[in-house]
Amino acid sequence: MSELFSRRLALLGDAAALPLLTQNLHGIERECLRVNADGSLAQTEHPRALGSALTHPQITTDYSEALLEFITPAEANPADTLADLERIHRFASSQLDGEYLWSPSMPGLLPDEADIPIARYGSSNIGRLKYVYRQGLALRYGKTMQCIAGIHYNFSLAEGLWPLLQQLDGDTQSARDYQSASYIALIRNFRRYSWLLMYLFGASPALDASFLRGRPHQLQQLDADTLFLPYATSLRMSDLGYQSNAQAGLTPCYNDLASYTESLRSAVATPYPAYAEIGTKNAAGEWLQLNSNIIQIENEYYSSIRPKRVTYSGERPIQALMSRGVQYVEVRCLDINPYLPLGIDLDQARFLDAFILFCALEDSPLLASGVCRASTENFLKTVKEGRRPGLQLQRDGQPVELQTWASELLERFAPIAELLDRAYGGDAYQTALHLQQRKVDDPAQTPSAQVLAELRETGESFRAMALRHSKEHAANFRAQPLTAEEQAGFVAMARTSLAEQAELESAEPGDFDSFVAAYQASILGIGV
């Protein structure tokens, strides 16, 4: 335990600071595919009863028209966040006619690439921009990759904690710069330790054989329709997931906010030959992609965690970060647990709080290139063989067994869990920590091991097992309908979002080409 960590813990345990721990904010974004009764990808349009995917604050779509995304408000208590997420699920389930929410991260049987529907957002300029961006993703990575789903966990420290921490550290930067630097330091530590999350919560050790579309691979055959790796935790986060030659050289530095935003700004502005060859429009003048640069927009950079700030209308993420600093972090590497109706539960959320707080409070030296590389290798090793007996990772240039390092980390999280329990009352955070220690002691208790054990025990294919859980979750949601008042609230929200989209489409000035040009220009001039 570093001296800095000890001092910060003591500060948080102080009577004046302890209640602030109950004011940290949490939000969840959960993606899931809509599927038909046989598990095939739904080809229907985004259900009108769910509202407008463009303007609804809680129910939207990600890549495909069939890839729903549920977004909770930011709440101080993770129990409230999960309750919000459950209400969204229950409403959506009540509106899906003969369709289901797919239970795992990896898709089941997908149609031909050409038949995977890209999400549509209407005829407004911003709606068309979102569609063209997704067309660009299809060109660059293929539509199949875009049907992988995950959970994003958003977390921010209580605003009242920052002045106390800054005073303790004797830091003389502006409050905004101190907060941003602290979040970037958190992200560096996250990079060091995120392999642990993949071991504990990875839930995609197997996938439908059709996902690979005949590409070469090193997976093993479990049955005619299922491929797997025996010790994998998360094939979703492995090199089978998002791969981009263009992004290979894009390694945003997490040593300060300015270098991070500049690397992304540069990538949005730098042409990539293969994309330039395709061009932005076809012979008929129809848009194919927003630009031919390394990434079309900031969100195309695939990372396991991002610094974020809520944007104003029309503002881009980098602009928000540069002008007002980091407000929260978005953890993006979490698989959907197919056994849980929401894909995540309260024990996991509480553990994530302790994990992220540890990353925020522990000393976080700058990432030298060797440490950066070792962190990436530890992560990739864990996703492909994290449960392998005796698996060794690299720590400070020395080999260390995953199990040993994991237990040591959980021990270091213990005082944080204790503080959170003191703040909230009860022992829920320490219980969540003990549950994770059991998985370290016995890899068979990890979700990834449970998935493989169930596939072997039942003899089901990945596709059949996932569909069965999808239907069980749907029955669970439908057996607990929302109250009339809650249902009416969602119906009203859907109606309002449709009206907002219609208003955008009727009142918007300017042509689309000019809109895209202005959108591109909005980022190219900053930071130069």
From TrEMBL:
Keywords: ATP-binding, Glutathione biosynthesis, Ligase, Nucleotide-binding
GO molecular function, one term: ATP binding
Boundaries of every Glutamate--cysteine ligase domain copy: 10-380
Residue ranges the record marks as coiled coil: none
GO cellular component: cytosol
Pathway(s): Sulfur metabolism; glutathione biosynthesis; glutathione from L-cysteine and L-glutamate: step 1/2
Reactions performed catalytically: L-cysteine + L-glutamate + ATP = gamma-L-glutamyl-L-cysteine + ADP + phosphate + H(+)
The protein's name: Glutamate--cysteine ligase
Gene designation: gshA
